[in-house]
Amino acid sequence: MNNLTTKDRALVLFSGGQDSATCLAWALSRYAHVETIGFDYGQRHAIELSVRPTLIEKMRQFSPEWQSRLGEDHMIDLSLISQLSHTAMTEDIAIEMQENGLPNTFVPGRNLMFMMTAATLAYRRGLNVLVGGMCETDFSGYPDCRDDTMKALQVALNLGMNTRLKLETPLMWINKAQTWQLAEQLGGIALVDLIREDTHTCYLGQRGAMHPWGHGCGTCPACALRARGYEYYRNGNFDL
After folding, report:
1. Which strands form 70-77's sheet, in the order they lie side by side?
2. Tens of pLDDT along 187-211?
3. What is the tally of structural domains in the chain?
4. In CATH, what number is assigned to the domain containing residue 63?
5. Is residue 145 a known part of a binding site?
């Protein structure tokens, strides 16, 4: 893919997981300047923060073009989220469904705070595109991953800061198998292998043995989704 836009400067919400790594590759294929932002919010799977620096460096070295386009990384302390929340993403409790129909891995306000923080940094850094891995297809019902939420948030952020930020969500309407396929389209099997081996998605924060789809406990919802998507991708079945 070669849709390079020289006038736009992007900030990618980059956790160190499969989706955000794919989004970073997507941004690097489109924008002449790309920066990354990560958040330490007391997440149970904080190991994702440990894999980020190595993963970013490997993405930087992936090609001369990406090397020249990938700029500064920013790590932000949002530990107040864990002080406000009582969820399976921030505490050592069993993952289960709640009475409101949402899994207790849902962290209320998390993506809203992520985007608001990213927009504030983008304002200071002269960046005009925010890229996030939110998705309505494989999103566990999280209301802050919906397209309507992102569109409303874009309006609110631009009104509140008198800017013209664009919120891009390249994974919004694709499933996990198609996310693997997108990675292959962006960087070939080499990028697929990099995402398999170096990203972290497991909610329980376990690296463990290397599975065909990557590291993880293999049983939590994030691992199950990633494994199923990879199986479908390898079998050429993208209509889950």
Report:
1. 70-77, 31-40, 5-13, 129-131, 166-168
2. 999 999 999 999 998 888 888 889 9
3. 1
4. 3.40.50.620
5. no
